[in-house]
Write a structure and sequence with these properties.
46% helix; four-stranded parallel sheet; Rossmann fold
Length: 312
């Protein structure tokens, strides 16, 4: 099936739509010359996800929104949908894994959402969400594989280009692929010479495996401290964007990720969850930065006790 890729205009329109709810997060230098951090951990929900979630919920017809929305999420997307729904007056149901960090569960509930638990994998919660949506007449707001979600996440890429015009490489974390699809599209359609590097946990290399196979593949299992990057399969649409615009995808170990969480705090006083520190881990593993480099710190929703362990 041929997938239609989003356009730069789609992302620019999304930027106007989400401007009122998504912060223009800072891009800050690190102690490593030429290495900068795009701090999406400073969004109101603690992660970039509200860009895509709001962009989609805001475009639903009023009567559809009034019936309610539902999503399946390991945490950050769930909080983002809950926030968007609250702002736009829609009921929200969030299906989370049984292993979801308490900080993310509490975050979704704080925005008034109903939280339902289902299994441990993305397939478990997707199946549960689809069943509830059918029974209640709710609209599913998928975590990554939708053009409106991708366009919303792509606004991060527009900001990077505006804040760092001489950027040469952008490192983007890869879960289901929504963020890297949007960022890569925004960057490559504006400056094709910029290198886009995806970063996955070594225990969840779904995009690496898919690009090697030439089509989306499903992992038998995944595991990592980076709970937001554990999708077993990229989306069909996100894979198509990655194939078109991503230069390469690398993997990092849990040990490297944990070290990056500590490094970000010790050197820049940034609180990053493991998923948000994966890109920094990949950059620190490089012997030669290869020019001005930006790593997206995608989120900072980490349990205090876990964070204390990482930085001690």
């Amino acid at each position: 099936m041929i997938q239609t890729l989003i356009t730069l205009e789609d992302i620019r329109e999304a930027a106007e739509r989400v401007a009122a709810v998504a912060r223009r997060t800072p891009l800050i230098p690190t102690i490593v010359p030429g290495f900068f951090l795009k701090c999406e951990n400073l969004q109101p929900t603690g992660a970039f996800k509200q860009r895509g979630a709001y962009n989609m919920v805001a475009q639903l017809a009023p009567d559809v929104r009034a019936r309610g929305v539902i999503t399946y999420s390991s945490g950050n997307h769930g909080q983002a949908v809950a926030m968007a729904a609250q702002l736009l007056g829609a009921p929200a149901v969030i299906v989370m894994p049984e292993t979801a960090p308490a900080v993310k569960v509490e975050g979704a509930r704080a925005y008034g959402a109903e939280v339902v638990f289902a299994g441990r994998t993305s397939f478990d919660r997707k199946e549960k969400a689809e069943a509830i949506a059918a029974a209640r007449g709710l609209t599913i707001v998928p975590p990554f594989d939708h053009e409106w979600i991708i366009a919303g996440q792509g606004t991060v890429g527009l900001e990077i280009l505006e804040q760092c015009p001489d950027v040469e490489r952008v490192f983007v974390p890869v879960g289901g692929g929504g963020l890297i699809s949007g960022v890569a599209t925004a960057v490559k359609r504006s400056k094709p010479q910029v290198t886009i590097v995806g970063v996955e946990p070594a225990g969840a290399p779904k995009m690496s495996a898919s690009l090697a196979a030439g089509e989306p593949v499903t992992l038998e299992k995944s595991g990592s401290i980076a709970d937001g990057l554990l999708a077993l399969r990229p989306g069909d649409l996100t894979f198509a964007h990655a194939k078109a615009f991503v230069d390469r995808v690398v993997t990092v170990t849990d040990e490297e990720i944990a070290s990056a969480v500590k490094w970000l705090f010790r050197t820049s006083r940034i609180v990053a969850e493991p998923s948000g520190a994966a890109t920094t881990a990949a950059v620190l593993a490089q012997r030669d930065l290869g020019g001005t480099t930006v790593a997206i710190v995608s989120g900072g929703n980490v349990a205090p006790e876990d964070f204390a362990r990482y930085i001690s």
